[in-house]
Write the structure tokens for this entry.
Amino acid sequence: QVQLVESGGGLVQPGGSLRLSCAASGFTFGRATMRWHRQAPGKERELVAGITSGGGNTYYGDSVKGRFTISRDNAKNTVYLQMNSLKPEDTAVYYCNAVVYYMSANYWGQGTQVTVSS
């Protein structure tokens, strides 16, 4: 059974930092591209960041470049999103996503709420 379990969300003041984690199971993590997406109220889900299976390539949405960093630990089957210099517009539910090409599958976690407010 595939599971993606996000953690690390919460309430933070503008300018603060949070680190999200996503623990994966049920597939070969080291063969999956991992992504973080987010969805704010009334808006479409958007790609925040992605990282290839070996961690050699990363990419980011324009709105988070220079502030967010995606990383992964294949030994721990976990992907991270370090979020710095947070802004109120970063408020959203953040979702972990696994693109498992060898299974032709795309999996999603349940999401974790991030609220940036003073």
Observations:
- The chain has a mean pLDDT of 96.
- The CA atoms of residues 56 and 79 lie 13 Å apart.
- The chain has no helices and eleven strands.
- The longest strand covers residues 92-100.
